[in-house]
Amino acid sequence: MQWTIFVYLVHLITWQTHQAHADSSTSGNYTIKNCQRVFRDTDVHQLLAQSRETIRLVLSDLKLGIASPHGFRTFFKSNTNLQTVNQVFGAIAQGENISGKPPILECAAPEYYKGPELETYRKLCTPPGRKPSHATSLPTLGAIVLCPGFWETSDFPGEEACLDVVGRRGRRKFADSGVELRNTKLAILLHELVHLYNPLNAAMTTPEVYDARESVRAKCTEFPLLPVGGELRI
Question: Which of the two ends of the chain, N or C, has the fewest CB atoms closer than 10 A to its terminal CB?
Answer without folding.
Answer: N
